Write the C-alpha coordinates for this entry.
Amino acid sequence: MNKLASALVILGVYVLHQDVWFWQAARPLVFGFLPVGLAYHAAYCVLVAVLMSVLTVVAWPAHLDRDPER
Amino acid sequence: MIPGLLVFAYLGVVLYIGIFAFSRSRGAGGAEDYFLAGRSLGSAVFLLSLFGTNMTAFTILGSAGHAFANGIVTFPLMASSSAFVIPLTLFFVGTRVWALGRRHGFITPVQMFRDRWECGHIGTVIFAVQAALLVPYIIIGVMGGGTALRGITGGLVPYWLGGAIVALVVMSYVFFGGMRGTAWVNTFQTILFLSFGGVALVLIGHGMGGFGVAMEALLASPRTAPLLTRERISPLFFLSYTVVPLSTIAFPHITIFCLTARRLAQFKRTVIMYPICILAIWLPCVFLGVAANAMHDVPRIEEKLQARSALAAPAGLTEPERSALRRAAAGDDVILVMLERYAPIWLAGLLGAGIMAAVMASDSQILALSTMFTEDVFAFYGGRERFGESIQVQTGRLFVVLLTVMAYVIALQVPQSIFDLAVQFAFSGYASLSPLLFAALFWPRSTKWGALAVALWSAFAVVYTARVPGALAWGGLMPVVPMTFISCALMAVVSLVTPPPSTDTIARYRL
Protein backbone atom coordinates (compact mmCIF):
# COMPACT_ATOMS: atom_id res chain seq x y z
CA MET A 1 0.00 0.00 0.00
CA ASN A 2 1.51 3.34 -0.94
CA LYS A 3 1.43 6.61 0.97
CA LEU A 4 -1.57 7.92 -0.94
CA ALA A 5 -3.66 4.85 -0.18
CA SER A 6 -2.69 5.05 3.51
CA ALA A 7 -3.65 8.73 3.61
CA LEU A 8 -7.00 8.00 1.95
CA VAL A 9 -7.79 5.22 4.42
CA ILE A 10 -6.91 7.51 7.34
CA LEU A 11 -9.09 10.25 5.87
CA GLY A 12 -11.94 7.77 5.42
CA VAL A 13 -11.75 6.72 9.06
CA TYR A 14 -11.71 10.37 10.10
CA VAL A 15 -14.86 11.02 8.06
CA LEU A 16 -16.54 8.09 9.81
CA HIS A 17 -16.02 9.94 13.10
CA GLN A 18 -18.36 12.73 11.93
CA ASP A 19 -21.45 10.50 12.04
CA VAL A 20 -24.19 12.99 11.31
CA TRP A 21 -26.44 10.01 10.50
CA PHE A 22 -26.89 9.18 14.21
CA TRP A 23 -27.05 12.80 15.33
CA GLN A 24 -30.61 12.86 16.65
CA ALA A 25 -31.07 9.12 17.23
CA ALA A 26 -31.00 7.49 20.64
CA ARG A 27 -32.67 4.26 19.50
CA PRO A 28 -32.12 1.43 19.03
CA LEU A 29 -30.60 0.82 22.44
CA VAL A 30 -27.80 -1.63 21.66
CA PHE A 31 -27.80 -4.57 24.14
CA GLY A 32 -30.97 -2.99 25.54
CA PHE A 33 -29.23 -0.04 27.21
CA LEU A 34 -26.55 1.56 25.03
CA PRO A 35 -27.81 4.50 22.89
CA VAL A 36 -26.91 3.87 19.27
CA GLY A 37 -24.73 6.98 18.98
CA LEU A 38 -22.61 5.83 21.91
CA ALA A 39 -22.41 2.24 20.66
CA TYR A 40 -21.28 3.54 17.25
CA HIS A 41 -18.37 5.46 18.74
CA ALA A 42 -17.41 2.51 20.93
CA ALA A 43 -17.19 0.42 17.75
CA TYR A 44 -15.29 3.29 16.13
CA CYS A 45 -12.51 2.91 18.72
CA VAL A 46 -12.17 -0.75 17.71
CA LEU A 47 -12.04 0.31 14.06
CA VAL A 48 -9.19 2.71 14.83
CA ALA A 49 -7.29 -0.12 16.54
CA VAL A 50 -7.71 -2.16 13.35
CA LEU A 51 -6.55 0.81 11.26
CA MET A 52 -3.45 1.21 13.41
CA SER A 53 -2.58 -2.47 13.22
CA VAL A 54 -2.84 -2.26 9.40
CA LEU A 55 -0.64 0.85 9.36
CA THR A 56 2.01 -0.86 11.48
CA VAL A 57 2.22 -3.52 8.77
CA VAL A 58 2.02 -1.43 5.60
CA ALA A 59 3.45 1.95 6.63
CA TRP A 60 5.77 1.26 9.56
CA PRO A 61 8.77 3.66 9.52
CA ALA A 62 11.28 0.83 9.97
CA HIS A 63 14.07 3.00 8.56
CA LEU A 64 14.05 4.97 11.83
CA ASP A 65 15.42 1.90 13.58
CA ARG A 66 18.40 1.73 11.22
CA ASP A 67 20.06 4.94 12.27
CA PRO A 68 23.58 5.09 10.82
CA GLU A 69 24.67 7.70 13.38
CA ARG A 70 23.75 5.61 16.40
CA MET B 1 -14.01 4.61 56.78
CA ILE B 2 -13.08 1.26 55.12
CA PRO B 3 -12.89 2.77 51.62
CA GLY B 4 -10.69 5.52 52.99
CA LEU B 5 -8.34 2.98 54.61
CA LEU B 6 -8.09 0.99 51.39
CA VAL B 7 -7.25 4.13 49.48
CA PHE B 8 -4.54 5.00 52.01
CA ALA B 9 -3.16 1.46 51.63
CA TYR B 10 -3.11 2.04 47.89
CA LEU B 11 -1.18 5.28 48.38
CA GLY B 12 1.33 3.30 50.45
CA VAL B 13 1.78 0.77 47.62
CA VAL B 14 2.33 3.60 45.15
CA LEU B 15 4.99 5.12 47.39
CA TYR B 16 6.69 1.74 47.74
CA ILE B 17 6.83 1.24 43.97
CA GLY B 18 8.35 4.68 43.48
CA ILE B 19 10.98 4.19 46.17
CA PHE B 20 11.72 0.62 45.03
CA ALA B 21 12.32 1.89 41.52
CA PHE B 22 14.65 4.51 42.97
CA SER B 23 16.73 1.90 44.72
CA ARG B 24 17.10 -0.01 41.44
CA SER B 25 18.23 3.01 39.51
CA ARG B 26 20.48 4.44 42.18
CA GLY B 27 23.55 2.71 40.84
CA ALA B 28 23.16 3.95 37.28
CA GLY B 29 22.82 7.66 38.12
CA GLY B 30 23.00 10.54 35.68
CA ALA B 31 20.47 12.91 34.16
CA GLU B 32 19.42 10.52 31.38
CA ASP B 33 18.69 7.80 33.90
CA TYR B 34 16.70 10.05 36.25
CA PHE B 35 14.77 11.97 33.58
CA LEU B 36 14.37 9.27 30.87
CA ALA B 37 14.80 5.97 32.76
CA GLY B 38 17.94 5.46 30.68
CA ARG B 39 15.79 5.18 27.49
CA SER B 40 15.15 1.61 28.52
CA LEU B 41 11.40 1.11 29.09
CA GLY B 42 10.00 -2.18 27.85
CA SER B 43 6.91 -2.73 25.74
CA ALA B 44 4.20 -3.21 28.37
CA VAL B 45 5.48 -0.48 30.69
CA PHE B 46 5.78 1.90 27.73
CA LEU B 47 2.17 1.33 26.63
CA LEU B 48 0.56 1.36 30.06
CA SER B 49 2.61 4.21 31.38
CA LEU B 50 2.13 6.37 28.29
CA PHE B 51 -1.60 5.80 28.46
CA GLY B 52 -1.68 6.46 32.20
CA THR B 53 0.41 9.58 31.74
CA ASN B 54 -2.24 10.99 29.45
CA MET B 55 -5.16 10.11 31.72
CA THR B 56 -5.90 12.62 34.43
CA ALA B 57 -8.46 13.43 37.08
CA PHE B 58 -10.50 14.71 34.21
CA THR B 59 -10.65 11.26 32.56
CA ILE B 60 -12.77 9.69 35.27
CA LEU B 61 -14.19 12.54 37.33
CA GLY B 62 -14.34 15.23 34.64
CA SER B 63 -15.67 12.95 31.89
CA ALA B 64 -18.45 11.59 34.06
CA GLY B 65 -19.26 15.13 35.20
CA HIS B 66 -19.32 16.38 31.63
CA ALA B 67 -21.52 13.46 30.56
CA PHE B 68 -23.83 14.08 33.51
CA ALA B 69 -24.47 17.59 32.21
CA ASN B 70 -24.15 17.07 28.44
CA GLY B 71 -24.96 13.44 27.73
CA ILE B 72 -23.40 10.82 25.48
CA VAL B 73 -21.78 13.49 23.30
CA THR B 74 -18.89 13.51 25.77
CA PHE B 75 -17.60 10.20 24.38
CA PRO B 76 -17.22 11.13 20.70
CA LEU B 77 -16.12 14.65 21.59
CA MET B 78 -13.24 13.60 23.79
CA ALA B 79 -12.71 9.84 23.71
CA SER B 80 -13.20 8.52 20.20
CA SER B 81 -11.62 11.65 18.68
CA SER B 82 -8.57 11.05 20.92
CA ALA B 83 -8.65 7.35 20.02
CA PHE B 84 -8.20 8.40 16.39
CA VAL B 85 -5.79 11.34 16.65
CA ILE B 86 -3.41 10.29 19.45
CA PRO B 87 -2.25 6.93 18.00
CA LEU B 88 -1.71 8.60 14.63
CA THR B 89 0.43 11.35 16.15
CA LEU B 90 2.41 8.74 18.09
CA PHE B 91 2.84 6.79 14.86
CA PHE B 92 4.01 9.71 12.72
CA VAL B 93 5.53 12.12 15.25
CA GLY B 94 6.39 10.04 18.33
CA THR B 95 8.50 7.53 16.39
CA ARG B 96 10.49 10.33 14.74
CA VAL B 97 11.03 12.15 18.03
CA TRP B 98 12.30 8.85 19.46
CA ALA B 99 14.73 8.37 16.55
CA LEU B 100 16.07 11.93 16.77
CA GLY B 101 16.40 11.65 20.55
CA ARG B 102 18.58 8.56 20.10
CA ARG B 103 20.56 10.15 17.30
CA HIS B 104 21.29 13.48 18.98
CA GLY B 105 20.86 12.68 22.68
CA PHE B 106 17.88 14.96 23.36
CA ILE B 107 16.02 14.78 26.64
CA THR B 108 13.46 17.56 26.05
CA PRO B 109 11.61 18.92 23.01
CA VAL B 110 13.17 22.37 23.49
CA GLN B 111 16.63 20.83 23.10
CA MET B 112 15.48 19.48 19.76
CA PHE B 113 13.97 22.82 18.70
CA ARG B 114 17.16 24.70 19.64
CA ASP B 115 19.29 22.33 17.59
CA ARG B 116 16.86 22.03 14.69
CA TRP B 117 16.39 25.79 14.29
CA GLU B 118 19.84 26.90 15.45
CA CYS B 119 18.55 29.09 18.25
CA GLY B 120 19.09 29.66 21.98
CA HIS B 121 16.83 32.23 23.61
CA ILE B 122 13.91 31.43 21.31
CA GLY B 123 14.08 27.97 22.84
CA THR B 124 13.81 29.62 26.24
CA VAL B 125 10.66 31.43 25.11
CA ILE B 126 9.17 28.09 23.96
CA PHE B 127 10.13 26.58 27.32
CA ALA B 128 8.40 29.43 29.17
CA VAL B 129 5.19 29.05 27.16
CA GLN B 130 5.19 25.25 27.56
CA ALA B 131 5.84 25.52 31.29
CA ALA B 132 3.13 28.13 31.84
CA LEU B 133 0.60 25.94 30.01
CA LEU B 134 1.59 22.81 31.91
CA VAL B 135 1.08 24.24 35.39
CA PRO B 136 -2.75 24.26 35.19
CA TYR B 137 -2.59 20.60 34.13
CA ILE B 138 -0.63 19.83 37.30
CA ILE B 139 -3.15 21.74 39.38
CA ILE B 140 -5.91 19.51 37.99
CA GLY B 141 -4.21 16.54 39.62
CA VAL B 142 -4.15 18.20 43.03
CA MET B 143 -7.77 19.36 42.70
CA GLY B 144 -8.84 15.88 41.58
CA GLY B 145 -7.00 14.34 44.53
CA GLY B 146 -8.79 16.63 46.96
CA THR B 147 -12.18 15.97 45.38
CA ALA B 148 -11.65 12.20 45.21
CA LEU B 149 -10.35 11.72 48.76
CA ARG B 150 -13.14 13.87 50.17
CA GLY B 151 -15.70 11.84 48.23
CA ILE B 152 -14.22 8.42 49.03
CA THR B 153 -13.99 9.12 52.77
CA GLY B 154 -17.48 10.64 52.86
CA GLY B 155 -16.08 14.05 53.79
CA LEU B 156 -13.84 12.80 56.64
CA VAL B 157 -10.82 14.00 54.71
CA PRO B 158 -11.51 17.60 53.67
CA TYR B 159 -10.60 18.89 50.22
CA TRP B 160 -7.52 20.81 51.40
CA LEU B 161 -6.12 17.76 53.22
CA GLY B 162 -6.92 15.34 50.38
CA GLY B 163 -5.13 17.61 47.92
CA ALA B 164 -2.15 17.87 50.29
CA ILE B 165 -1.90 14.09 50.74
CA VAL B 166 -2.04 13.41 47.03
CA ALA B 167 0.49 16.16 46.29
CA LEU B 168 2.85 14.77 48.94
CA VAL B 169 2.66 11.18 47.67
CA VAL B 170 3.17 12.21 44.05
CA MET B 171 6.02 14.53 44.97
CA SER B 172 7.74 11.78 46.96
CA TYR B 173 7.86 9.12 44.27
CA VAL B 174 8.74 11.58 41.52
CA PHE B 175 11.50 12.97 43.76
CA PHE B 176 12.99 9.55 44.53
CA GLY B 177 12.07 7.51 41.49
CA GLY B 178 12.42 9.97 38.60
CA MET B 179 11.14 8.67 35.27
CA ARG B 180 11.63 5.01 36.16
CA GLY B 181 9.62 5.31 39.37
CA THR B 182 6.96 7.41 37.69
CA ALA B 183 6.65 4.96 34.78
CA TRP B 184 6.23 1.96 37.08
CA VAL B 185 3.70 3.77 39.27
CA ASN B 186 1.81 4.83 36.14
CA THR B 187 1.80 1.24 34.91
CA PHE B 188 0.34 0.01 38.20
CA GLN B 189 -2.20 2.84 38.20
CA THR B 190 -3.25 2.21 34.61
CA ILE B 191 -3.93 -1.46 35.30
CA LEU B 192 -5.98 -0.39 38.30
CA PHE B 193 -8.11 2.22 36.60
CA LEU B 194 -8.58 0.15 33.46
CA SER B 195 -10.17 -2.48 35.70
CA PHE B 196 -12.18 0.19 37.48
CA GLY B 197 -14.55 1.11 34.66
CA GLY B 198 -15.93 -2.33 33.89
CA VAL B 199 -16.35 -3.29 37.54
CA ALA B 200 -18.06 -0.01 38.39
CA LEU B 201 -20.40 -0.42 35.42
CA VAL B 202 -21.46 -3.93 36.42
CA LEU B 203 -21.91 -3.04 40.09
CA ILE B 204 -23.89 0.11 39.58
CA GLY B 205 -25.97 -1.43 36.81
CA HIS B 206 -26.83 -4.34 39.07
CA GLY B 207 -27.64 -1.97 41.94
CA MET B 208 -29.93 0.14 39.76
CA GLY B 209 -31.81 -2.92 38.54
CA GLY B 210 -30.37 -2.68 35.03
CA PHE B 211 -29.44 0.26 32.84
CA GLY B 212 -32.25 -0.39 30.34
CA VAL B 213 -34.81 0.95 32.80
CA ALA B 214 -32.70 4.05 33.46
CA MET B 215 -32.28 4.77 29.73
CA GLU B 216 -36.01 4.35 29.07
CA ALA B 217 -36.74 6.76 31.93
CA LEU B 218 -34.36 9.33 30.44
CA LEU B 219 -35.91 8.91 26.99
CA ALA B 220 -39.41 9.36 28.40
CA SER B 221 -38.70 12.90 29.60
CA PRO B 222 -38.25 15.74 27.08
CA ARG B 223 -35.76 17.34 29.47
CA THR B 224 -33.41 14.34 29.59
CA ALA B 225 -33.99 12.57 26.25
CA PRO B 226 -31.52 14.90 24.43
CA LEU B 227 -28.78 13.57 26.73
CA LEU B 228 -28.87 10.35 24.68
CA THR B 229 -28.37 12.15 21.36
CA ARG B 230 -26.19 14.98 20.06
CA GLU B 231 -29.01 17.32 19.06
CA ARG B 232 -27.86 20.04 21.48
CA ILE B 233 -24.56 20.68 19.71
CA SER B 234 -23.76 21.61 16.14
CA PRO B 235 -21.81 19.30 13.79
CA LEU B 236 -19.27 22.12 13.34
CA PHE B 237 -18.61 22.34 17.06
CA PHE B 238 -18.34 18.54 17.10
CA LEU B 239 -15.88 18.61 14.21
CA SER B 240 -13.74 21.22 15.90
CA TYR B 241 -13.21 18.96 18.90
CA THR B 242 -11.08 16.65 16.77
CA VAL B 243 -8.38 19.33 16.76
CA VAL B 244 -8.04 19.21 20.56
CA PRO B 245 -6.17 15.84 20.74
CA LEU B 246 -3.35 17.34 18.66
CA SER B 247 -2.37 18.81 22.01
CA THR B 248 -1.36 15.41 23.32
CA ILE B 249 1.82 14.91 21.33
CA ALA B 250 2.78 18.54 22.01
CA PHE B 251 2.52 18.12 25.79
CA PRO B 252 6.15 17.99 26.97
CA HIS B 253 5.49 15.01 29.24
CA ILE B 254 4.24 13.00 26.25
CA THR B 255 7.02 14.13 23.90
CA ILE B 256 9.59 13.36 26.59
CA PHE B 257 7.96 10.00 27.27
CA CYS B 258 8.41 9.05 23.60
CA LEU B 259 12.16 9.16 24.30
CA THR B 260 11.99 6.49 26.99
CA ALA B 261 11.23 3.51 24.71
CA ARG B 262 14.01 0.95 24.42
CA ARG B 263 13.20 0.12 20.80
CA LEU B 264 11.09 1.57 18.00
CA ALA B 265 8.98 -1.59 17.90
CA GLN B 266 7.52 -0.64 21.28
CA PHE B 267 5.44 2.02 19.56
CA LYS B 268 3.65 -0.70 17.56
CA ARG B 269 1.73 -2.25 20.42
CA THR B 270 1.10 1.18 21.89
CA VAL B 271 -0.58 2.66 18.81
CA ILE B 272 -2.74 -0.44 18.33
CA MET B 273 -3.84 -0.78 21.94
CA TYR B 274 -4.27 2.91 22.71
CA PRO B 275 -7.81 3.17 21.22
CA ILE B 276 -8.85 0.04 23.10
CA CYS B 277 -7.56 1.46 26.38
CA ILE B 278 -9.49 4.67 25.73
CA LEU B 279 -12.62 2.64 25.09
CA ALA B 280 -12.16 0.62 28.27
CA ILE B 281 -11.87 3.63 30.56
CA TRP B 282 -14.05 6.28 28.89
CA LEU B 283 -17.10 4.27 27.89
CA PRO B 284 -18.06 3.22 31.45
CA CYS B 285 -17.34 6.69 32.85
CA VAL B 286 -19.39 8.52 30.22
CA PHE B 287 -22.24 6.03 30.37
CA LEU B 288 -22.39 6.16 34.17
CA GLY B 289 -22.33 9.96 34.07
CA VAL B 290 -25.36 9.93 31.75
CA ALA B 291 -27.16 7.25 33.75
CA ALA B 292 -26.77 9.33 36.92
CA ASN B 293 -29.49 11.60 35.55
CA ALA B 294 -32.00 8.85 36.24
CA MET B 295 -30.98 8.38 39.89
CA HIS B 296 -33.58 10.52 41.58
CA ASP B 297 -33.48 8.21 44.59
CA VAL B 298 -29.92 9.29 45.44
CA PRO B 299 -30.23 12.52 47.48
CA ARG B 300 -26.90 14.07 46.45
CA ILE B 301 -27.62 13.48 42.78
CA GLU B 302 -31.18 14.78 43.14
CA GLU B 303 -29.73 17.98 44.67
CA LYS B 304 -27.57 18.42 41.56
CA LEU B 305 -30.55 17.86 39.27
CA GLN B 306 -32.59 20.42 41.23
CA ALA B 307 -29.76 22.93 40.97
CA ARG B 308 -29.58 22.37 37.22
CA SER B 309 -33.34 22.93 36.89
CA ALA B 310 -33.07 26.16 38.87
CA LEU B 311 -30.23 27.31 36.61
CA ALA B 312 -32.40 26.72 33.55
CA ALA B 313 -34.97 29.22 34.88
CA PRO B 314 -35.19 32.11 32.40
CA ALA B 315 -34.51 35.03 34.78
CA GLY B 316 -34.53 36.28 38.33
CA LEU B 317 -31.15 34.98 39.48
CA THR B 318 -28.23 37.14 40.51
CA GLU B 319 -24.73 36.21 39.35
CA PRO B 320 -23.66 34.97 42.82
CA GLU B 321 -26.78 32.79 42.93
CA ARG B 322 -25.98 31.41 39.49
CA SER B 323 -22.40 30.64 40.56
CA ALA B 324 -23.64 28.83 43.64
CA LEU B 325 -26.11 26.82 41.54
CA ARG B 326 -23.43 25.96 38.99
CA ARG B 327 -21.24 24.61 41.77
CA ALA B 328 -24.16 22.63 43.21
CA ALA B 329 -25.01 21.19 39.78
CA ALA B 330 -21.42 20.22 38.90
CA GLY B 331 -21.11 16.49 38.34
CA ASP B 332 -17.40 15.87 38.95
CA ASP B 333 -18.21 13.61 41.89
CA VAL B 334 -21.21 11.68 40.47
CA ILE B 335 -19.25 8.43 40.07
CA LEU B 336 -18.11 8.64 43.69
CA VAL B 337 -21.70 9.23 44.81
CA MET B 338 -22.92 6.28 42.72
CA LEU B 339 -20.28 3.95 44.14
CA GLU B 340 -21.14 5.02 47.65
CA ARG B 341 -24.77 4.19 46.94
CA TYR B 342 -24.43 0.92 45.02
CA ALA B 343 -21.07 -0.75 45.71
CA PRO B 344 -20.29 -2.89 48.78
CA ILE B 345 -18.20 -0.80 51.13
CA TRP B 346 -14.93 -2.74 50.69
CA LEU B 347 -15.29 -2.75 46.93
CA ALA B 348 -16.04 0.96 46.94
CA GLY B 349 -12.64 1.34 48.57
CA LEU B 350 -10.88 -0.64 45.84
CA LEU B 351 -12.73 1.29 43.17
CA GLY B 352 -11.85 4.47 45.00
CA ALA B 353 -8.21 3.45 44.64
CA GLY B 354 -8.87 3.11 40.89
CA ILE B 355 -10.15 6.66 40.86
CA MET B 356 -7.13 7.83 42.83
CA ALA B 357 -4.94 6.13 40.23
CA ALA B 358 -6.42 8.33 37.54
CA VAL B 359 -6.38 11.56 39.49
CA MET B 360 -2.71 11.16 40.40
CA ALA B 361 -1.56 11.51 36.81
CA SER B 362 0.09 14.85 37.52
CA ASP B 363 3.31 12.98 38.33
CA SER B 364 4.46 12.95 34.71
CA GLN B 365 3.79 16.63 34.27
CA ILE B 366 5.73 17.49 37.41
CA LEU B 367 8.66 15.35 36.25
CA ALA B 368 8.48 16.83 32.74
CA LEU B 369 8.59 20.39 34.05
CA SER B 370 11.49 19.49 36.30
CA THR B 371 13.28 17.87 33.35
CA MET B 372 12.66 20.92 31.18
CA PHE B 373 13.85 23.33 33.84
CA THR B 374 17.09 21.48 34.52
CA GLU B 375 17.87 20.74 30.86
CA ASP B 376 16.50 23.79 29.05
CA VAL B 377 17.41 26.44 31.62
CA PHE B 378 19.86 25.14 34.24
CA ALA B 379 22.06 23.09 31.91
CA PHE B 380 21.64 25.37 28.87
CA TYR B 381 22.77 28.45 30.77
CA GLY B 382 25.89 26.76 32.10
CA GLY B 383 24.69 25.10 35.30
CA ARG B 384 25.81 21.60 34.34
CA GLU B 385 29.26 22.77 33.26
CA ARG B 386 29.74 24.77 36.43
CA PHE B 387 28.24 22.40 39.01
CA GLY B 388 28.22 18.97 37.35
CA GLU B 389 25.53 16.44 36.45
CA SER B 390 24.88 15.33 40.02
CA ILE B 391 23.90 18.86 41.09
CA GLN B 392 21.74 19.08 37.97
CA VAL B 393 19.71 16.06 39.11
CA GLN B 394 19.46 17.50 42.64
CA THR B 395 18.22 20.76 41.12
CA GLY B 396 15.57 18.79 39.27
CA ARG B 397 14.46 17.22 42.55
CA LEU B 398 14.30 20.59 44.28
CA PHE B 399 12.22 21.88 41.39
CA VAL B 400 9.81 18.95 41.87
CA VAL B 401 9.23 20.06 45.49
CA LEU B 402 8.77 23.74 44.65
CA LEU B 403 6.42 23.00 41.78
CA THR B 404 4.23 20.66 43.81
CA VAL B 405 3.90 23.16 46.66
CA MET B 406 3.01 25.92 44.20
CA ALA B 407 0.40 23.74 42.45
CA TYR B 408 -1.15 22.87 45.80
CA VAL B 409 -1.42 26.48 46.93
CA ILE B 410 -3.04 27.49 43.64
CA ALA B 411 -5.43 24.51 43.76
CA LEU B 412 -6.77 25.78 47.06
CA GLN B 413 -7.54 29.18 45.55
CA VAL B 414 -9.05 28.25 42.17
CA PRO B 415 -12.70 27.19 42.36
CA GLN B 416 -13.11 26.36 38.66
CA SER B 417 -14.30 22.95 37.50
CA ILE B 418 -11.66 20.40 36.56
CA PHE B 419 -12.83 20.12 33.00
CA ASP B 420 -13.03 23.84 32.19
CA LEU B 421 -9.57 24.45 33.54
CA ALA B 422 -8.05 21.65 31.49
CA VAL B 423 -9.62 22.60 28.20
CA GLN B 424 -9.37 26.34 28.52
CA PHE B 425 -5.68 26.54 29.24
CA ALA B 426 -3.69 23.41 28.59
CA PHE B 427 -5.38 21.55 25.75
CA SER B 428 -6.08 24.52 23.48
CA GLY B 429 -2.65 26.01 24.11
CA TYR B 430 -0.80 22.81 23.33
CA ALA B 431 -2.89 22.11 20.23
CA SER B 432 -1.84 25.56 19.09
CA LEU B 433 1.81 24.69 19.82
CA SER B 434 1.65 21.38 17.93
CA PRO B 435 2.77 22.93 14.58
CA LEU B 436 6.20 23.35 16.21
CA LEU B 437 6.69 19.58 16.23
CA PHE B 438 5.21 19.00 12.79
CA ALA B 439 7.34 21.76 11.26
CA ALA B 440 10.52 20.60 13.00
CA LEU B 441 10.08 17.04 11.76
CA PHE B 442 8.44 17.41 8.37
CA TRP B 443 9.25 20.85 6.94
CA PRO B 444 12.95 21.55 6.28
CA ARG B 445 12.24 25.19 5.37
CA SER B 446 10.81 26.03 8.82
CA THR B 447 12.78 28.59 10.82
CA LYS B 448 13.34 29.75 14.39
CA TRP B 449 11.37 32.93 13.69
CA GLY B 450 8.38 30.86 12.60
CA ALA B 451 8.74 28.89 15.83
CA LEU B 452 8.89 32.10 17.87
CA ALA B 453 5.75 33.39 16.14
CA VAL B 454 3.90 30.16 17.00
CA ALA B 455 4.98 30.28 20.64
CA LEU B 456 4.05 33.95 21.12
CA TRP B 457 0.74 33.56 19.29
CA SER B 458 -0.21 30.50 21.37
CA ALA B 459 0.57 32.34 24.61
CA PHE B 460 -1.40 35.38 23.52
CA ALA B 461 -4.36 33.32 22.29
CA VAL B 462 -4.63 31.37 25.55
CA VAL B 463 -4.64 34.57 27.64
CA TYR B 464 -7.04 36.25 25.23
CA THR B 465 -9.57 33.40 25.16
CA ALA B 466 -9.34 33.02 28.93
CA ARG B 467 -10.05 36.70 29.52
CA VAL B 468 -12.62 37.32 26.77
CA PRO B 469 -15.40 34.70 26.79
CA GLY B 470 -16.36 33.67 23.28
CA ALA B 471 -13.17 35.06 21.75
CA LEU B 472 -11.95 33.23 18.64
CA ALA B 473 -15.09 31.05 18.63
CA TRP B 474 -15.58 31.89 14.97
CA GLY B 475 -18.63 30.51 13.17
CA GLY B 476 -19.49 28.12 15.97
CA LEU B 477 -16.03 26.57 16.05
CA MET B 478 -14.14 26.09 19.28
CA PRO B 479 -11.31 28.64 19.75
CA VAL B 480 -8.79 25.81 19.50
CA VAL B 481 -9.44 25.55 15.73
CA PRO B 482 -8.55 29.14 14.75
CA MET B 483 -5.74 29.07 17.30
CA THR B 484 -4.15 26.01 15.67
CA PHE B 485 -4.73 27.12 12.08
CA ILE B 486 -3.31 30.58 12.76
CA SER B 487 -0.28 28.86 14.32
CA CYS B 488 0.19 26.84 11.13
CA ALA B 489 -0.18 29.97 8.99
CA LEU B 490 2.30 31.90 11.13
CA MET B 491 4.84 29.08 10.95
CA ALA B 492 4.49 29.00 7.15
CA VAL B 493 4.49 32.73 6.43
CA VAL B 494 7.16 33.78 8.93
CA SER B 495 9.44 30.88 7.94
CA LEU B 496 9.18 31.73 4.25
CA VAL B 497 10.28 35.34 4.80
CA THR B 498 13.17 34.51 7.15
CA PRO B 499 16.45 32.67 6.43
CA PRO B 500 16.36 28.88 6.85
CA PRO B 501 18.78 26.90 9.06
CA SER B 502 22.05 25.74 7.50
CA THR B 503 21.96 22.84 5.07
CA ASP B 504 24.09 20.80 7.49
CA THR B 505 21.45 21.13 10.19
CA ILE B 506 18.62 20.33 7.80
CA ALA B 507 20.54 17.25 6.65
CA ARG B 508 20.92 16.02 10.22
CA TYR B 509 17.14 16.06 10.57
CA ARG B 510 16.38 14.15 7.39
CA LEU B 511 14.54 10.98 8.41
